[in-house]
Specification:
The protein is of the alpha/beta class. The protein has 22 helices and 23 strands. 51% of the residues lie in helices and 15% in strands. α2 packs across α12 and α5 packs antiparallel against α12.
C-alpha cells in the first residue's frame, strides 16, 4: 500500500503509539516497516495472536524484558570464530534473560492451545550461560575477580605489589631530606607506573626514570629507582591479567557460538512477541476488540471510534459498506464529522490488516483491501498541500490509474474548489468510473446533485451528519439512508442575519432547489419521527427482553430449587435406609457375639467342672496314699427356695443366691459370683451360719501347699493368679481376660495380674476400659515396683 495514502488517514500516528510500547529497537523498526496483510487468513492469524496476548497481559501483567540491541549480530560473529567483548557478552546475556522471562511469563499453559503457542515454543532459554556471563562480567569494561582462579590470583598479587610500592613511595615523600625536592607530597600514576612530582631544578637529587613533564615544565614525574623493578613486575602482572581476561572472553565466545542456531530462532521469536505485545498493549489502552474478518469485499463497523480522539468526547458511529451498497455519499454541515467518518473507516480497516485491535463493538466485521486510496484535502488532513482543486485532481488521476476491485477509495469534498455545476458533474463521473472497477467508495460532499445521484442510483447510499439547530453544534452521528443538510439558512438566521436577507436568499433559489430542500426537510422530520419510534421500539424490546430473561431466571431458579429439594429428599431417604441397614447389621453382629459368648461361657463352665473333678480326684488319691479316710459330708436338701435366699452348694462348697424359685422340672436359677446357672433343688441346702475362723497353726517346712483362699490371705503370687497377653490382638486379649476373671471368681482368687506389656499402650488402655464394665471387678491399678510396673494391671475382685 502507498504510505502517502496511509499517512493521510493518520496510520503513522497509530504506529508511533505502538512503537513507544515496544522494548527492543529491532521490534520498533519492524513496527515502522510493517505493511498491511492482504490475505484474509493472515489477517485472522495476526488478529488472533494480538487478542491472545492481550488476554495474557490482563492475566499476568507485562513481561519483564529489556532492550538487547545488537545481540543477534554478536552471536553471528561468535559463530564465525570471533571473540566477543564484555559489552557484547552482556548484550547476549540480556537476550537470554528475555528468553527466560518470556517463557516464564507465558507459562506451561493449561492444556488449551493458543494462537501464540508456536512463537513461545520457539524460545529456548539457556539458564546456565545466562547466569554465568553476568557473574563473571560486571560491566562493559570490568570483569569480576571470581571469573577464574587464575584471574583472582593475579589481581591479588597486583594489589600486594601496589601496596608495597605505595609504602616505598610514602617513605620517599615523607623523608625530610626529600621534601624540599618535591613539588608536593603526593603519589600519582603516569603510563601505568607510580611516580612522584619532582621540581625540575632538583632533577638530579632523586634518581629514577622520568615518565612525564608538566605543561609548564616546572614539574617532572619521576619513577624512583627503588620502585622501578616493582613497577615492572606490576606491568608484567597486568599483561598476564589482560591475557587471562582474553582467555575468559574466548571461552564465553565459544559457548555463545555453540548455542547460535537456537539463539537465532529464539531471538526472532522474541522480537515477534515484543512487536505483538506492543500492539496488544495499545489495543487495551484504546479498549480495542478483535473484529471478525470477512472474505467478501465489505465491512460493518459498529460503534466505531476514531482512536486519536479522546474516548471522553468521541461519538461512536456505525459504518457499513459493501453488503447492500458499494458507495456511500456523506453530506452535512461543515465540522459535522464527515471527514472523521472517512478516516475512521479507512484507519480501522487498515489497523485490522496490521493486526491491531480496533476501538469498536465486538460484533464489527472487517474485510481485506489490497489498497486504500485516499484524497483528503481539508484542514484536518496532514497533507495541506492538496487543498486546491488542482491538487485534488492530481490525486484523483493517480487513484483512477491504480484502482481495482480490491480497493477502498476515500474522497473528501469531491469536486470542490471549482464551479459547483461542473464540480458536481465531474464528481458524479468520477464515482461512476470508480464503481465500474468494483471498488468500494466513500465520499463527502455539499452538492445537492450528488444527493440526488445517490437517491436515484442502485448501490449508492446517502448518509448524513446530524446537526443540532438549537445549539448550532454537530452531534457527529452518522445517519445512513438520509442525506444531510447544510442548514446554511437556519445557521445564518440563528447567528443574527436579518430575516429579510434570508428570505431574499430563498427567492434566489430555483423551484427545483426549493422543492428538494422541502423534501429534505420532510425526510428530516420523518427521520426524527422514525428515530423516536425506533427508540421506543428498542426501549420496549429491551424491557420485554429483560422481563423475559427475569421470568426465565425465575423459572430456572424454581426448577433448580425443586431439583435440589428432590435430591435432598432422595439423599435423606437413602441415608435413612442406610441407617436402618447399618442398625440391622449391628444387631446381627451383636446376636452373633452373644451366641459366641454363650458358647464360650458353656465351654468355660465345662472346663471348670473338669478341673474341679480332676483336683478332687488328686486330693482323694493323695489322702489314700497317706492313709487318710474321707468322711463324706452330709447335708439336708432344701424343700423350697425363694428369690434372694442365700443357699449352699455342697458339691462345690460354695455359697450362692437364688434368682428364681424351682420350675416345673425342679430346677432353681442361682447366681454364684459372676456365674448364673440352674441346679436341682435337691442339691442345695441351707447356708451354714458364719463361724469364726480358728487360728491355724504355723505351717512347717514340708507341709502341704496352701489353698487358693489361703494364697489370697497370705499375699503369695502364684501362676494361677497371672495371665500373659503379650502378642495378642485386642479382641483375643479381651476374650481371654473375661475367661481368666470368670475362672478366678469360681476359684476365689484375688488379686489377679494381667500382663499386657508397655508397647504403644493400646492394649493396656483397651483392657482397663473393659475392666470398668466388668461387674466382678472391684478395682484395678498398674503394677508397682516388683510387680511389673506399667506393664501389668493388678485387679481386685469383689
Amino acid at each position: 500500500m502507498n504510505k502517502k495514502y496511509l499517512k493521510n488517514i493518520e496510520l503513522d500516528k497509530i504506529v508511533e503509539m505502538a512503537v513507544e510500547r515496544a522494548v527492543c529497537d529491532e521490534a520498533k523498526q519492524m513496527l515502522l516497516q510493517e505493511a498491511p496483510y492482504t490475505r484474509p487468513d493472515d489477517v485472522r492469524q495476526v488478529l488472533s495472536q494480538t487478542d491472545a496476548l492481550a488476554s495474557h497481559l490482563l492475566k499476568n501483567g507485562n513481561p519483564r524484558i529489556s532492550s538487547c540491541g545488537g545481540a543477534s549480530n554478536s552471536v553471528s560473529r561468535a559463530a564465525k570464530g570471533g571473540v566477543l567483548s564484555m559489552a557484547e557478552l552482556l548484550a547476549v546475556s540480556g537476550a537470554l534473560r528475555n528468553f527466560s522471562a518470556l517463557a516464564s511469563w507465558f507459562g506451561p499453559g493449561e492444556g488449551i492451545s493458543t494462537p501464540v503457542d508456536d512463537l513461545f515454543f520457539a524460545i529456548t532459554p539457556q539458564p546456565t550461560l545466562e547466569k554465568a556471563i553476568p557473574e563473571a562480567i560486571l560491566s562493559d569494561t570490568e570483569m569480576a575477580d571470581t571469573a577464574s582462579d587464575e584471574l583472582y590470583s593475579l589481581r591479588r598479587k597486583i594489589r600486594v605489589a601496589e601496596g608495597s610500592i605505595r609504602d616505598k613511595l610514602d617513605s620517599v615523600i615523607k623523608n625530610q631530606n626529600n621534601s624540599k625536592y618535591l613539588q608536593e607530597a603526593v603519589v600519582s600514576i603516569r603510563n601505568g607506573r607510580f611516580v612522584v612530582p619532582v621540581k625540575a631544578e632538583h632533577r638530579n637529587e632523586i634518581g629514577g626514570v622520568i615518565h612525564d613533564v608538566s605543561s609548564s615544565g616546572g614539574t617532572l614525574f619521576v619513577e624512583p629507582t627503588a620502585v622501578v623493578e616493582a613497577n615492572a613486575k606490576i606491568l608484567q602482572l597486568r599483561n598476564q591479567e589482560q591475557a587471562e581476561i582474553e582467555r575468559i572472553l574466548g571461552e564465553f565466545s565459544e559457548q555463545v557460538a555453540g548455542i547460535a542456531p537456537f539463539f537465532e530462532v529464539s531471538y526472532s521469536a522474541m522480537l515477534e512477541v515484543d512487536k505483538r505485545i506492543a500492539k496488544a498493549e495499545l489495543g487495551l489502552a484504546m479498549n480495542g476488540v478483535c473484529p471478525k474478518v470477512n472474505d467478501a469485499q465489505g465491512f460493518s463497523l459498529v460503534k466505531a471510534r476514531h482512536p486519536l480522539i479522546s474516548k471522553d468526547v468521541v461519538v461512536p458511529v456505525d459504518i457499513t459498506l459493501g453488503e447492500n451498497y458499494d458507495t456511500m455519499i456523506i453530506t452535512g454541515p461543515n465540522t459535522g464529522g464527515k471527514t472523521v467518518s472517512l478516516k475512521t473507516a479507512g484507519l480501522l480497516c487498515t489497523m485490522a490488516q496490521l493486526g491491531y485491535l480496533i476501538p469498536a463493538h465486538d460484533s464489527s466485521t472487517v474485510c481485506v483491501f489490497g489498497q486504500i486510496l485516499v484524497d483528503i484535502g481539508d484542514e484536518q488532513s496532514i497533507e495541506q498541500s492538496l487543498s486546491t482543486f488542482s491538487g485534488h485532481m492530481k490525486n484523483i488521476t493517480e487513484i483512477l490509474r491504480v484502482v481495482d476491485d480490491k480497493s477502498l477509495v476515500l474522497l473528501d469534498e469531491l469536486g470542490a474548489g471549482t464551479d459547483p455545476a461542473e464540480g458536481a458533474a465531474l464528481a458524479i463521473a468520477v464515482i461512476e468510473r470508480l464503481r465500474a472497477t468494483g471498488a468500494r467508495i466513500m465520499a463527502t460532499t455539499h452538492y445537492a446533485e450528488l444527493k440526488m445521484f445517490a437517491l436515484d442510483t442502485p448501490g449508492v447510499q446517502n448518509a448524513g451528519s446530524e446537526f443540532d439547530i438549537e445549539t448550532l453544534r454537530p452531534t457527529y452521528r452518522l445517519v445512513v439512508g438520509v442525506p444531510g443538510r447544510s442548514n446554511a439558512f437556519l445557521i445564518s438566521e440563528k447567528l443574527g442575519i436579518p430575516e429579510s436577507v434570508i428570505e431574499s436568499a430563498r427567492a434566489h433559489m430555483s423551484n427545483e432547489q426549493r422543492r428538494f430542500e422541502t423534501v429534505l426537510t420532510q425526510l428530516e422530520d420523518l427521520k426524527l419521527e422514525f428515530k423516536e419510534q425506533q427508540d421506543e421500539i428498542e426501549r420496549l424490546k429491551y424491557t420485554a427482553t429483560h422481563q423475559l430473561e427475569a421470568a426465565q431466571k425465575q423459572r430456572d431458579a424454581l426448577i433448580r430449587q425443586g431439583e435440589e429439594e428432590l435430591a435432598q429428599a432422595r439423599q435423606k431417604a437413602k441415608a435413612l435406609a442406610d441407617d436402618v441397614q447399618n442398625k440391622a447389621y449391628r444387631l446381627m453382629d451383636e446376636i452373633k457375639q452373644i451366641e459366641k459368648q454363650q458358647r464360650t461361657s458353656n465351654a468355660q463352665k465345662a472346663q471348670r467342672a473338669r478341673e474341679i473333678a480332676r483336683k478332687d480326684a488328686e486330693d482323694l488319691l493323695q489322702r489314700a496314699a497317706k492313709g487318710e479316710t474321707s468322711t463324706p459330708k452330709t447335708f439336708v436338701p432344701l424343700k423350697a427356695a425363694a428369690p434372694g435366699q442365700e443357699v449352699y452348694m455342697p458339691e462345690m462348697d460354695k455359697l450362692a443366691t437364688v434368682i428364681t424359685g424351682p420350675d416345673k422340672a425342679g430346677l432353681v436359677e442361682i447366681r454364684m459370683g459372676a456365674i448364673k446357672t440352674k441346679v436341682p433343688l435337691a442339691k442345695l441346702s441351707a447356708a451354714p451360719k458364719l463361724q469364726k475362723t480358728e487360728k491355724k497353726p504355723r505351717r512347717m517346712r514340708g507341709a502341704a501347699s496352701p489353698t487358693p483362699a489361703a494364697q489370697q490371705t497370705t499375699g503369695i503370687r502364684t501362676p494361677q493368679m497371672e495371665i500373659n497377653l503379650l502378642g495378642k490382638t485386642v479382641n483375643e486379649a479381651l476374650l481371654e481376660t473375661d475367661q481368666f476373671i470368670d475362672a478366678a471368681v469360681i476359684s476365689g482368687l484375688t488379686p489377679l495380674y494381667i500382663i499386657h506389656g508397655r508397647g504403644t499402650g493400646a492394649l493396656r488402655s483397651a483392657i482397663q476400659q473393659h475392666l470398668r464394665s466388668n461387674k466382678s471387678v472391684k478395682s484395678f491399678r498398674l503394677g508397682q515396683y516388683g510387680e511389673g510396673e506399667d506393664g501389668v494391671t493388678v485387679v481386685e475382685l469383689k
